[in-house]
Specification:
By secondary structure, the chain is mostly beta strands. It is built from no helices and eleven strands.
């Protein structure tokens, strides 16, 4: 089994900062892309940022210049540093990973998700 465990959400005032961390564990063979998504009530889940195993990053336009994603391949962790937070950043944030795990029948691909962590930004 594979698990993604997130931490670091909470309540912050506008202009403040938060850091979200996600650790992947289990029978993992390799991880390709890791990323952060977010979902507001009544809206579709959207990609915030992702990063490949080689370090290439991708950000949605609304967070460019404010958020930074980075990962530690040796520890299977991904972190989202969020600065200059705005009330519209208030969402549940989910960690995701495209990975290969070692199952009973050999290697299999999996898109794993964390349980979500709430980020609330007050004005």
């Amino acid at each position: 089994q594979v698990h993604l465990v997130e931490s670091g959400g909470g309540l912050v005032q506008a202009g403040g900062s938060l850091r979200l961390s996600c650790a992947a564990s289990g029978s993992i063979f390799s991880i390709n892309t890791m990323g952060w998504y977010r979902q507001a009530p009544g809206k579709q889940r959207e990609l915030v940022a992702d990063i490949t195993s080689g370090g290439s990053t991708n950000y949605t336009d609304s967070v460019k210049g404010r958020f930074t994603i980075y990962r530690d391949n040796a520890k299977n962790t991904v972190t989202l540093q969020m600065n200059s937070l705005k009330p519209e950043d208030t969402c549940v944030y989910y960690c995701a990973a495209d990975l290969i795990y070692i199952g009973d029948s050999g290697h299999d691909a999996l898109e794993a998700w964390g349980q979500g962590t709430l980020v609330a930004v007050s004005s």
